[in-house]
Amino acid sequence: MSQDTIESILQEKRLFQPPAEFSEKAQIKSLEEYKQLYDRAKADPQAFWGELAEKELHWFQKWDTVLDWQPPFAKWFVNGKINISYNCLDRHLTTWRKNKAALIWEGEPGDSRTLTYSQLHREVCQMANAIKKLGVQKGDRVGIYMPMIPEAAIAMLACARIGAIHSVVFGGFSAEALRDRLNDGQAKLVITADGGFRKDAIVGLKEQVDKALANGAAPSVTDVLVIQRTKQQIHMEAGRDRWWHDLQKEASADCPAEPMDSEDMLFILYTSGSTGKPKGVVHTTGGYNLYSHITTKWIFDLQDTDVYWCTADVGWITGHSYIVYGHLSNGATTLMYEGAPRNSNPGCFWDVIEKYGVNIFYTAPTAIRSFMKMGEHHPKARNLSSLRLLGTVGEPINPEAWMWYHRIIGNSKCPIVDTWWQTETGGIMITPLPGAIATKPGSATLPFPGIVADVVDQDGATVTNESGGYLVIKHPWPGMMRTLYGDPDRFRRTYWEYLRPKNGDYLYFAGDGAHKDKDGYFWVMGRVDDVISVAGHRLGTMEIESALVSHPAVAEAAVVGKPDEIKGEEIVAFVTLDSAYTSSPQLEKELKQHVVSEIGAIARPGEIRFTDALPKTRSGKIMRRLLRSLAAGQEVTGDTSTLEDRTVLDKLRGGA
Ligand code: WT7
Questions:
Q1: What whole-number distance in Å separates Cα of residue 453 and Cα of residue 451?
Q2: What pLDDT digit, counting tens, does each position of 98-116 carry?
Q3: 313 CB under 6 A from ligand 1?
Q4: Cα–ligand 1 centroid distance for 196 (angstroms)
Q5: Cα–Cα distance between 82 and 263 in angstroms, integer?
Q6: Is residue 3 predicted with pLDDT exceeding 60?
Q7: For ligand 1, is residue 527 a contact (CB within 6 Å)?
Q8: Which of 139, 159, 163, 586 has the largest count of CB atoms under 10 Å?
Q9: What DSSP assignment string belongs to 277-337?
Q10: Is pLDDT of 656 > 50?
């Protein structure tokens, strides 16, 4: 973000108090109540989390110690025994929720399905038994590569039920990206579907799985379980691939949930970082269950009759915590939609809200900006009066988009929760509690109780109010990542040793810059590392550069983000070619396609700029700051004295 934008954001004067009717019935009803919770959690975190864990969750066996903190490694609810699938399903069956809708699903072509808690429990047990029969045991890793259909959630819960560790890979990732993730986690089984419907086309998921596994490239995988969704012809490999509907017929619906150690691994989820290789973020059972549960309850202000809809994909952490685990653990009704706004139906989201009377709606700023562009006549043509709470996540929301969301979708009456968090944090960290905290457009407001957030300088010292710095967390919390799969050293270096205060404290830092205003409100400004955010998807520049240089024509590549009105950022790649190749529109197309097949469509560069040389420092570091300015069409300002060859810049300017 430019200094100008930052200054104009900090000038934001609009303040929206929680509506009185909302606060009256809310889980957390006032600023005083929030402050009491916050202060209590800060003064005695162990008592705070311990009491919540006891009150909100079912444990097969109680823990001995709430927190064992050997920085940067934490254990929560030590020796406690728990199962998140039990907390999401079984415990509701002995209550009035037994026949309540757990999952409402709407397919893109217009088909739909509702599963009550008892129906969902039955299917989860069946799938758990089916994968056990395929040889999956407690501790084994299972890849899940699915469209947005109920079986995606069923597969996650089935793994959790028997103690298998799931690794969900977003269905938009390519075969190559899938293969790397399966190999990193040494997955034994892949659960997938013949395909899924997306934007009036079929996404051939099974085809990608076949490619990922071809020629023994992912040797740990011995079995593939296939859900039938689209019914198009697919290849079924004998001895490896099995249809779910065949196994389901034989599968018993009796499968007791395995008592798991609180610190047993629940899932791995890969995310991008500054360096090339995606990071396998590890979450464990007890702490994650509690944190996703309590943040869901207080932030989305769950009431028994609510229908909640989050538009994320289960392939991202938002889908894990706030489509599946957090909501089911609370016994809520969660809605899942397979499709996306498309030319044939740009207003499909509003249709879904009207059809099911959705009360709580959670989406991303990039989606809101594209709704604005499509025009307010779409939402205005539908009845959205059921909505009572709105949320956003994924990137900073610009005040214009916030105001549009508030007026057009929320009819100026729904509070908006702008929720800051990350794959690594497991759950929401900085956010309004909608009945308690007044909002300012563009600010994620205040930390959740138990979260000690701060803005610090390079030495880890708190910066004075209103000047920017690094956003850090100063105390462990139950939902925090425990490590990077197979790489505890990288975990320590990346998140805990980037900033080291002189007193030796450990601060958690995962890459965002922020400001704090005079009211203590946080304004998250975006990534300060080499990570770009395209339509709310986090992509490492190195990851895309590695994909580019794996093409024979490319000698060197540097990738930067360029501001984009809808997507937040667009990918611009600066590329030098091997001497045997010359640039052409054809090659540009080919390189873009190459990135798509290496990573997936989300990483497709918007622009490729061919150049003779990249601007580097004398020590050989690519000066991305200069490239960012060039990509954005801005004057290159600041210090260029470390540039090794100044003519490079002139040439790039000329070519730009
Ligand atoms: C990065 C984490 C957490 C689920 C979605 C993304 C950015 C996320 C906000 C927000 C400003 C935000 C940050 C963060 N981000 N929410 N409300 N305001 N920025 O998860 O892929 O792990 O990405 O998304 O830059 O570090 P993720």
A1: 6
A2: 999 999 999 999 999 999 9
A3: no
A4: 26
A5: 10
A6: no
A7: yes
A8: 159
A9: SPEEEEEEHHHHHHHHHHHHHHHTT--TT-EEEE-S-TTSHHHIIIIIIHHHHTT-EEEEE
A10: no
